[in-house]
Structures are given as C-alpha cells and as structure tokens.
Specification:
This protein is of the alpha/beta class. It is 38% helix and 23% strand. The chain has seven helices and seven strands. The chain has a seven-stranded mixed β-sheet with strand order 3-2-1-4-5-6-7, sandwiched between helices. Strand 1, helix 1 and strand 2 form a beta-alpha-beta unit. The longest helix is centred in the last third of the chain and has 23 residues. The termini are close together. The relative contact order is 0.17. Bound molecules: 5-O-phosphono-beta-D-ribofuranosylamine. The site of 5-O-phosphono-beta-D-ribofuranosylamine has 16 residues, from helix 1, strand 5 and helix 7. 5-O-phosphono-beta-D-ribofuranosylamine binds next to helix 1, strand 5 and helix 7.
Length: 185
C-alpha cells in the first residue's frame, strides 16, 4: 500500500474527495493530513475519515519538522491540495517525482506567485478568456513549473463571475484529482 500525505491550508474539499476515493483503493491510502493552519476545515474532514492529522508553523516547516513527520509516517507520495506555503527545497528533494499539486487554471497561464484561489478566477474573468480549467503537475523547486501530468478544461461564458468560474473549476478538480493520483502512484 502506497502511503499518501495530503498538505492543505484551507477548506479541503479536494482532500475530502481524495480520502473518499482511497478508502476503496487497493493501491494506496491517505495516512496523514497536514496543515499549517490549526483551524483549517480540512482537519475536521480528516477526523471524519479517521485520518491522522498534523499541524505545523511555517518556521517549523522550514526547520524540517514536517519532513521529519513525513519520514516517520513512511509517506511515499505528498499531495498538495490547496496548500499555500512555499515548500522548502529539501522537502521537495526528499520526494523526487513523488509530490503532486493541483492548480486551478490551465498552466502556464495564471501560475506563479500570488496566483491562487480567487485571484486566479478574477484574472481569468478580467482577461475575458473563453476557457479555464485545472492542471495537475509534479512539484519541482520552481513554483507551478513541474511536469504537467493532466489538464482538463471548462468553458467560461460572458455571464460567468469569478465565483461561478471557481465552482466550475472545483467540479473538475473533484472529478479528476483522485483518479489522476491513483494512476500516478
Ligand atoms: C483548489 O481550487 C486548488 O486548486 C487550490 O486550492 C483550492 C483548494 O480548495 N490550489 P479546497 O480546499 O480543496 O476546497
């Protein structure tokens, strides 16, 4: 069984879909949900799935506390699902081609620093793009520039708002992220 850790900073709706999926998988299971936000709703979701949780500060992560925990838990793959801190290079290097992120746009568009959450969907709306989507990619030392594994698109109409775009993108994430992880591992 492949042991997965999910890192998330927020609500964790993607984390929930992943935990749900891997309850019935013969390939892997979610062994840990870790967050830099002690009040993140993702931690509640993890408890409902009886998945162990771990919280840490940015400073602790930079001092290697998270890496130690991932090693102690014998984690094979790290899944970033709405994790908002920059991952230290030594942590990335500890999981070569074993760390995957989901980005709520069609990279290379709308990637890089400051492009997360609502900012992405506002930028798509402001540019008048006719489509947007999701990108699932491996993580390397450069923000949002790792190898792209999977993309899926959805249309954007003139009536769409940043909120409705976010809903469409979330629907794609929930539909594809768990199965893409399953096929990757
Ligand atoms: C998702 O849109 C994901 O692409 C991103 O952060 C969001 C997290 O949503 N990078 P949730 O916490 O899984 O609901």
């Amino acid at each position: 069984m492949i042991r997965l850790a999910i890192l998330a900073s927020g609500s964790g709706s993607n984390a929930e879909k992943i935990m749900e999926h891997f309850q019935n998988s013969s390939k892997g299971h979610v062994a840990l949900v870790a967050s830099n936000k002690p009040d993140a709703f993702v931690l509640e979701r993890a408890k409902n799935f009886q998945v162990p949780t771990f919280t840490f500060t940015k400073k602790e992560m930079e001092a290697g506390v998270l890496l130690d925990k991932l090693r102690e838990e014998k984690i094979d793959w790290v899944i970033l699902a709405g994790f908002l801190l920059k991952i230290p290079d030594d942590l990335i290097r500890a999981f070569p081609n074993r760390m995957v992120n989901i980005h709520p746009a069609l990279l290379p568009k709308y990637g890089g620093k400051g492009m997360y959450g609502a900012y992405v969907h506002e930028a798509v709306k402001a540019a008048g793009d006719k489509e947007t989507g999701i990108t699932i990619h491996l993580v390397n030392e450069h923000y949002d520039e790792g190898k792209i594994i999977f993309q899926a698109a959805t249309s954007v109409t003139p009536e769409d708002t940043p909120d409705s775009i976010a809903q469409k993108v979330h629907a794609l994430e929930h539909r594809y992220f768990p199965e893409v992880i399953e096929s990757l591992i």
